[in-house]
Structures are given as C-alpha cells and as structure tokens.
C-alpha cells in the first residue's frame, strides 16, 4: 500500500486511539486560528488529492517529518501553482430566523424562530463563505476535517482561473470558463449537488 492508502485507512477508523488524539489536538489548534485562514498544506492530503488538489511534481521523494501541533507525519507538500487550500469553521446547529425582538407576522405555521433547519449543508455554507473572502478564486471542492461541540471545520480547495499553470492544464482549465463563476452559490460543487 502507498502512503495515501495508509492515510485514508487511518481516517476510516476515527475511534482509534491515534486518530482520536490527533483530531483532539488539531481541533484545539484550529480553535486558536481565525475563522477563515489559508492553510499551508492540506491536513488530509489523500482526501484533497481525490477531490482534485494537485501537488507539485516529485514531492513524495522528500522525507517525512513530524510536524508541530501534533500533525502526524505531515509532509512538506508543495501545492501546484494556482491551487490554494483554505480552512474554515462553521457554527453547528439550527439556524435562527433574523427577526427583531422575535416579532413575526402571518400565519402561526410560519412564525417559528428557533427550530429552523437550514436547507443546505454546513459544508456548502463553508464553501460560500470562503468564496466570498477570495473573490478572484474558484471553488473546486471541499471536505470535512474536524468538529467539536460548537463548530465543524472544513478545508476548501480553490483554483486561480487567471494563473497560466491552470489555463494551460487541460485537466483543470474547464474551471476558467465564465459559466463556473460563483459555482458554489449556484449549487454546482459537489456539496451543493448533495443538498
């Protein structure tokens, strides 16, 4: 098995002692950071690659090292030019209707304030918030990385459509088309299609 296969097998067993410790330490680290921040490398390189993230050629020839803040065998993964990873946290739970002092109007069936369920997933919300921050980039995909009692944490893969390395790559230059602007807001990403 290759290194990525080991990583993916490890993430399938989230109740194992190794991963429980790793997720707890990383969750503490993420809480200290800003709500939306750029990640130097994906925390789950196997998942990121499956979803379209590209690393620069020949990165596996380097040596593995034990990273800070408990990141297990974090390799110095250098992204291909034009690819960016952002980490974002979204508050868990229901959505409250924004009404002043709880004053609602109309029929009683429409007067709910507290127990309203948002129709889109938290992952889709995370993609949209990152895209609003990085207006010049396009959202390629995203994935879950952690959660605690209050927040869920996601990593969002973004692509720079004006970068020459992206425009010249036949496998990814489809995202440079104008019909893929704001694709996360129109339900064109994988999270948007799921619900």
From TrEMBL:
Domain of life (superkingdom): Eukaryota
UniProt-listed SUPFAM superfamilies: Ribosomal proteins S24e, L23 and L15e
One CC-aspect GO term: cytosolic large ribosomal subunit
Stored SMART domains: Ribosomal_L15e (SM01384)
Keyword Ribonucleoprotein: yes
GO molecular function, one term: structural constituent of ribosome
Keyword line: Ribonucleoprotein, Ribosomal protein
GO BP terms in the entry: cytoplasmic translation
Record-stated family: Belongs to the eukaryotic ribosomal protein eL15 family.
Stated name of the protein: Ribosomal protein L15
Species of origin: Rhodotorula taiwanensis
Taxonomy of the source species: Eukaryota, Fungi, Dikarya, Basidiomycota, Pucciniomycotina
